[in-house]
Design a protein that fits this description.
alpha/beta, Rossmann fold, six-stranded parallel sheet, two-stranded antiparallel sheet
């Protein structure tokens, strides 16, 4: 069965990878481990955004860049598609204001574009008959409508892989033919080689 996998990168990271030693993840190997052998994975589309350095973690962009280069060097079937971050100052209420000011100005950073990009690619690839089954790796309900359209108008199968141990989104489940969790054991057994063969790319220290 021709299969395309659509990965919400930040959803996967924050729900399953953050705080673990599994960040050097080999995405195609992970999905081959989780899915049935009938799935012939032709492409893994990874949707993310370039992260920014912070005072607490100035090397964050370098680590991300190393990982993305490793994926592209080792796995030809992986495509990386970028959204972007928006940062702006907003006023937010204090949790315990006491007798002082009740609001504080904070810098709010939001990742934009990845969910929209994922939904557009999911639909466009279905209309072009590039796959028989699409696998959505996310728990973001914003993707539900694109899944519904793929099933209703393109007659494709849609599977849902939920990162972490939380319950799958009901909206996503409603438009899925099957659903599975991505377990920590699958993450641990699906790591990229270190270094990447034929390159000098190595796993970042601390990963």
């Amino acid at each position: 069965m021709r299969t395309y996998v659509y990965v919400d990168g930040f959803n996967l990271y924050y729900r399953a990878l953050k705080g673990t030693t599994c960040k050097w993840i080999d995405l195609p190997a992970l999905f081959k481990a989780v899915l049935h052998p009938q799935h012939q994975i032709l492409a893994v589309k990874y949707f993310t955004a370039r992260v920014n350095a912070t005072p607490a973690d100035p090397s964050k962009p370098q680590r991300q860049d190393v990982y993305l280069r490793a994926l592209q060097a080792y796995r030809a079937e992986v495509e990386i598609h970028f959204g972007h971050f928006l940062s702006h100052t907003v006023k937010a209420p204090l949790a315990n204001p006491g007798s002082g000011p009740k609001y504080a100005e904070i810098i709010k950073t939001e990742e934009k574009g990845s969910d929209v990009n994922l939904a557009v690619h999911l639909l466009n690839d279905a209309w072009q008959d590039k796959y028989d089954c699409a696998i959505v790796v996310s728990n973001d309900s914003d993707i539900a409508e694109s899944m519904r359209l793929v099933k209703a108008h393109c007659q494709k199968r849609v599977g849902l892989l939920t990162p972490g141990s939380s319950h799958p989104s009901r909206q996503l489940l409603a438009h899925s033919d099957f659903s599975r969790h991505i377990r920590i054991s699958a993450l641990q057994s699906s790591q990229l080689p270190d270094p990447i063969p034929g390159t000098k790319i190595r796993k970042p220290t601390g990963w």
